[in-house]
Amino acid sequence: MHSRFSDGSGTAGEIGEYARESELDFAILTDHNTLKAKEKGFEKWFGNTMFIVGYEVNDNKNQNHYLVFDLDEVVGKFDKLPDGDLGNRLSAKEYVKAINEKGGFGFLAHPDEKRNHLPEHPPYPWTAWDCKDFTGIEIWNHMSEWAEGLNDSNKLQRFIHPLKSIIAPPAETLKKWDELNLKRKVVAIGGVDAHAHKHSIMGFDFEIFAYKILFKSIRTHVLLQKEILKGDKNNFETDKKQILNALRNGNSFIVNNYHGSGTGFRFVAEYNGINYSLGDEIKFDPEKKKKIILRTFVPENGKIRLIHNGKTVDELEGLEGIWDSDETGAYRIEVWKGEKGWIFSNHIRVI
């Protein structure tokens, strides 16, 4: 999401307050090519909401947008592009490498974006697939999906009801993500990409992607090792590090909160007496003749799919599922409500 420090319509302080009013545990601001919100002191607690500041970097063609976390500097040198935005003189491959070397990490933003119905907001896909050392992928982006499904017949309806039209992450992105996990761990997040842009449609002024509205949409849940005392200023940096490490390691899952809270969802495994969870890797020894036990628990009834190496191997309706396996590969869970995607877990990899 973005503030007035780049191309959003709200101030960083306003967005922090909206996040607090929405009762989010944490929210991350990712303005384009700037950490001004952090420099101005907005990385702090807003009530019980931790407000974290990262940024979004892009190349000189305004492509290959990369969400950057856990750094106190913006990597690269920038030129002003014809449209007024900034472009990095470094290539995507170069800035991803530099970010890693400095201790940061990041996610490909809206990698398969194809929207074409809003000329003032063209698509910004990821094209630098020769880059091999990114941390993860934003598999679900509210703004991208909303805009890609926009046409003249549904425009007014989608502006009035921005939450109803969101279905699921792009199949193309999920396919790439699963394929990447066959070779190495590539973790996923979801994002709303909130800008709160102002538009006039049929003589009516609309604010699309209003921050408080979109905070009811796609959320990334993290699993932490230690409980955070909300509002505790003394442990802010330690607690922030916990959240960022969970995102870095894939100890997380993505939920469209519009269809119900995902709180309480779990996907776990047990092998050779050891318990594993989202983002973990299991070293499988076929000589032990022991199977991996996979379990999932869902907070509300839904259609549960077990995905192995990108293919659905089982589907059931209910609140939980249990399976056993003696195959290596990448396992994850999807939960659907009717024809709408609800929960998408990160992988447990068996190597």
Lay out the secondary structure.
Blueprint lengths: L11 H10 L4 E7 L3 H4 L4 E3 L2 E9 L8 E4 L8 E3 L5 E3 L3 H10 L3 E4 L27 E6 H7 L6 H6 L10 H10 L6 E5 L5 E5 L2 E5 L2 H4 L3 E5 L13 H14 L2 E5 L9 E6 L2 E3 L4 E2 L9 E17 L2 E15 L3 E9 L2 E6 L2 E3 L1
Parallel strand pairs: 1-3, 7-8, 8-9, 16-21
Antiparallel strand pairs: 2-3, 3-4, 4-7, 5-6, 10-11, 12-13, 13-20, 14-15, 14-17, 17-18, 17-19, 19-20, 19-21
Q: In a few lines, what is going on in this structure?
A:
The protein is α+β, with helices and mostly antiparallel strands. Helix content is about 20%, strand content about 35%.
Q: Which key phrases capture this entry?
A:
alpha+beta, TIM Barrel, Immunoglobulin-like, 2 domains, 10-stranded mixed β-sheet, 7-stranded mixed β-sheet, 8 helices, 36% strand
Question: Overview of this structure, please?
Answer:
With 351 residues, this protein is an alpha+beta fold. The protein has 2 domains: 12-259, Alpha-Beta Barrel (TIM Barrel), CATH 3.20.20.140; 266-350, Immunoglobulin-like (Sandwich). The chain contains 8 helices and 21 strands. The chain has helices spanning 12-21, 36-39, 92-101, 142-148, 155-160, 171-180, 211-214, 236-249; strands at residues 26-32, 44-46, 49-57, 66-69, 78-80, 86-88, 105-108, 136-141, 187-191, 197-201, 204-208, 218-222, 252-256, 266-271, 274-276, 281-282, 292-308, 311-325, 329-337, 340-345, 348-350. Strands 12, 13, 14, 15, 16, 17, 18, 19, 20 and 21 form a 10-stranded mixed sheet that branches. Strands 1, 2, 3, 4, 7, 8 and 9 form a 7-stranded mixed sheet that branches. A hairpin with a 2-residue loop joins strand 17 (292-308) and strand 18 (311-325). The model has no long low-confidence stretch (mean pLDDT 93).
